[in-house]
């Protein structure tokens, strides 16, 4: 880690400029949450750990040479905007697509992109109606159970792509149920922000 770098969490460090952008994102989310429901009011006081760092940990779990990353249900920018801010420094050639069906949240995402000075695409619409994206990485946070997320990942991932899904204490139950309809390779890591949570990394998805 360089002297001017900031360590977000173990194994991931960013420049002070990127750290400042992430703090600016957190401030924007808090500002907009007073108008639209981006995050729960109970998590505002702990936004840095519960949302920013919780999202940032996903970056290190993605393949090193990804070219396109689709974040589904980007909402208040977690994890998609956090990934976009980090990627602006660590993978500037990577293309990030934020997919959000709520028009007001899409406006927030576009505002955040403009104010933070990063290049990211926002698609306002439902992922189910979109043509396959062929993404190297697909993420979704607090969007639905695994059995509902796998059809999305199956449709929109590139053949060797990887899905990254943060999950809570019922992760094992979700995996067991999903396997009744889907086959997939899975690895997991404990969440760095919640001792009861896991982050699932899934590849080679196919319907049973």
Give an account of the 3D structure:
The protein has 208 residues and is α/β, with parallel strands linked by helices. It has one domain: Rossmann fold (3-Layer(aba) Sandwich). It is 35% helix and 29% strand. It has 6 helices and 9 strands. It has helices at residues 16-33, 47-56, 80-90, 103-116, 146-156, 171-178; strands at residues 5-9, 12-15, 68-72, 95-100, 121-124, 135-140, 157-167, 182-190, 198-207. Strands 5-4-3-6-7-9-8 form a 7-stranded mixed beta sheet, with helices on both faces. It has a two-stranded antiparallel sheet with strand order 1-2.
Q: How many domains make up the 3D coordinates?
A: 1
For this structure, what is the CATH class? Alpha Beta
Main β-sheet, spatial strand arrangement: 5-4-3-6-7-9-8
Q: How many individual helices?
A: 6
Short description:
This protein is an alpha/beta fold and 208 residues long. Helix content is 35%, strand content 29%.
Fold topology:
Layout: E1 5-9, E2 12-15, H1 16-33, H2 47-56, E3 68-72, H3 80-90, E4 95-100, H4 103-116, E5 121-124, E6 135-140, H5 146-156, E7 157-167, H6 171-178, E8 182-190, E9 198-207
Parallel strand pairs: 3-4, 3-6, 4-5, 6-7
Antiparallel strand pairs: 1-2, 7-9, 8-9
Attribute tags:
two-stranded antiparallel sheet, Rossmann fold, seven-stranded mixed sheet, 208 residues, single chain, 6 helices, alpha/beta, globular
């Amino acid at each position: 880690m360089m002297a001017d770098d900031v360590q977000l969490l173990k194994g991931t460090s960013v420049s002070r400029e990127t750290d400042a952008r992430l703090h600016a994102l957190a401030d924007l989310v808090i500002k907009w949450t007073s108008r639209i429901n981006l995050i729960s009011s109970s998590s505002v006081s702990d936004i840095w750990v519960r949302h920013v760092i919780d999202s940032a940990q996903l970056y290190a779990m993605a393949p090193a040479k990804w070219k396109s990353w689709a974040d589904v249900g980007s909402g208040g920018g977690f994890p998609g905007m956090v990934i976009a801010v980090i990627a602006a420094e660590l993978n500037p050639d990577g293309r990030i697509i934020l997919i959000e069906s709520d028009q007001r949240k899409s406006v927030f995402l576009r505002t955040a992109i403009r104010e933070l000075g990063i290049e990211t695409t926002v698609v306002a619409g439902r992922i189910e109606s979109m043509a396959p994206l062929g993404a190297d990485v697909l993420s979704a946070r607090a969007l639905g159970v695994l059995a509902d997320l796998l059809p999305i990942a199956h449709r929109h991932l590139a053949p060797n792509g990887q899905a990254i899904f943060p999950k809570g204490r019922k992760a094992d139950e979700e995996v067991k149920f999903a396997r009744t309809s889907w086959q997939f390779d899975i690895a997991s890591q404990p969440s760095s922000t919640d001792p009861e949570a896991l982050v699932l990394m899934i590849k080679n998805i196919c319907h049973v």
